[in-house]
Structures are given as structure tokens and as C-alpha cells.
Specification:
136 residues
Length: 136
């Protein structure tokens, strides 16, 4: 039974974080490919006595490697935070819907006109005297 729970947890983790795991795999492959291309180009340039171009290829290799390393670091950081942000948002939504103070405030949001105490006194005085408020 415990064995099935481990596989279920692993498959759930992979399902939720597939995008970031693909970024990590592509980045690691990119690092390998950029290193292999640099080695091939460096060997070719040494055999053809064009050593002045090796520095350019080395710079391009390290630019690609640094980009892929940054992508790996970003993806690893997002692995844990993506689920935490979703669960925090759900928790905030639940808390917001169950808060009695916010429910009371929602009643006042859609009122067309709020009446002050003086408005209520004037309207009750008009009702008692029968005055329509217009002078002739």
C-alpha cells in the first residue's frame, strides 16, 4: 500500500509541475549541446590554424550556459512556489467568503444612496407634517 502512495505522490508532483520539469530537462540538454559544439568548433579551429576565433566561440558557449543555468534555477524555484501560491490564493478566497465583516460591507457596496442621520430626520419630519418640501 505504501508503495502505491509513493507512486501516486510522484505522479501528482510530475503532473502539477510538468512545465518546469520540461524547462529543466531542456536546459540540461542545452548545456550539454553547447559544450559539445564548443569542443567540436575548438578542435576544428585548432586543426585549421584559426585560433583567433576560439575566443568568440568560448564567449558564445558561456552565454548559452549561463542562460540555461538561469533557466534551471528559475524553474527549480518555481517548482515549490507554484503550488504554494495556488493554495494560498484558495485559502484567501475561503477566508474572504467566510468573514462576517466583509459580508456586512458587501451590503453597503450596492446601495444607490446612503442616507445620513439628518436626511432621515428631515424625511420623517416631512412625513409627520405632510409637507412635500415645495414652497408656493
Amino acid at each position: 500500500m505504501y508503495h502505491y502512495l509513493k507512486w501516486a505522490a510522484l505522479s501528482l508532483f510530475i503532473k502539477r509541475n510538468m512545465r518546469y520539469l520540461i524547462f529543466i530537462a531542456v536546459s540540461l540538454a542545452g548545456i550539454y549541446v553547447s559544450d559539445a559544439l564548443y569542443q567540436d568548433m575548438a578542435d576544428y579551429l585548432l586543426k585549421t590554424n584559426q585560433t583567433d576565433k576560439i575566443a568568440k566561440y568560448l564567449l558564445m558557449k558561456w552565454a548559452a550556459v549561463s542562460f540555461f543555468i538561469a533557466l534551471v534555477i528559475w524553474s527549480i524555484m518555481r517548482l515549490g512556489f507554484a503550488n504554494a501560491q495556488k493554495s494560498k490564493k484558495r485559502e484567501d478566497d475561503r477566508r474572504k467568503s467566510s468573514d462576517p465583516y466583509l459580508e456586512r460591507l458587501e451590503k453597503f457596496k450596492n446601495i444607490e444612496k446612503l442616507k445620513s442621520r439628518s436626511d432621515l430626520l428631515i424625511s420623517s419630519h416631512k412625513k409627520d407634517t405632510g409637507d412635500s418640501g415645495t414652497k408656493s
